[in-house]
Amino acid sequence: MLERLNQAMEQIEQGLDRPVDVAGLARTATTSEYHLRRMFSALAGMPLSEYVRRRRLTVAGAEVLDGREPLLEIAVRYGYGSGEAFARAFRAVHGVGPGEARRTGCALVSQPRLTFRLTVEGSSSMRYRVVDRPAFTVVGLKARVPLVHLGPNQAIIDFVRGIEPRTVERLELLSDQEPQGIVAVCDDLDPSRAEGTELDYYHGVITSAAAPEGTTSLAVPTGTWAVFTTSGPAPQVIQELWRDVFTQWFPSNPYRSRPGPELLRTRLSPDRTEADAELWLPVEREQG
Question: What separation in angstroms does the CA of 117 have from each of 3, 111, 124?
């Protein structure tokens, strides 16, 4: 997988002066556009679109300093319809406008080319299983929240704290399917997984019962799921599990992510410093 992903990175370099063809990159990486975006974001720490933008402006910066071509020609070559749009984007990355950079020859910011390598850390193997399961329904309460990569998600914390304990108890009684008990469900995520993008968060249960008044439901179709388990300090161990799944498990296994909700069942220690967690991710087998 990583070798094919690096071939896609080379394809980006050859086409920095053209619109990015994500479908073509996915074909080169022999995966889906959805999984390519997910993998890239997890491995690079930024969305694919942001990396392409930064690489374009890095190369454009070198041409600006070179001084041989008009700034407007450089702007148009790298996809900007006007000198003003190019100047805004250039300043956002380099901290200085292209005209001033050319006049003063100042130092610019450089986005290095990325090459991906698999490095496996730690002494314990990742615990997982792959499950084919029929359609099911999530029933619970829903909020729209921002995505947070590291540390507590205050929006989710505030939302869950605002749920009456009696409501949680009633929901728990409805749980009749795996994963059992209260689960956190994330749906409708931006494929880029960029920090601050929004998602639908459900605090509820997997059940065959109808949604009680005051709750909402999410119908989930039949599909395949990869189920990962972990335990350790909260919330770090859970966030590290998400990272390790995409940086270690997917590159080493014949599966790719597919659109769908992601389920997390967490059991906290009495002092809430340790967690046992089970993460369910929708997957499909790679073709070929």
Answer: 8, 18, 20
User: End-to-end alpha-carbon separation of the chain, Å?
Assistant: 12
Q: What is the pTM of this model?
A: 0.79
Structure tokens that stand for 135 in this block: 């359609």
Least Cα distance to 62 among 16, 20, 6 occurs for 16
Going by their DSSP bridges, the two strands 183-187 and 136-146 should be labelled as: unpaired
What would the two tokens of residue 102 be? 């050319």
Cβ atoms < 10 Å from Cβ of 130: 12
User: How does DSSP classify residue 153?
Assistant: -
For the stretch 134-155, pLDDT in tens is: 999 999 999 999 998 777 789 9
Q: pLDDT tens-digit profile of 233-286? A: 887 888 788 878 888 888 888 899 999 999 999 998 999 889 899 999 999 998
For residue 240 the two structure tokens come to 């590290």
Separation CA 174–CA 155 (nearest Å): 26
Query: Residue 193 is encoded by which pair of tokens?
Result: 């997984």
**Which residues in 262-273 are b (16+ Cβ under 10 Å) and which e?**
bbbbbeeeeeee
User: Cα 33 to chain center, whole Å?
Assistant: 13
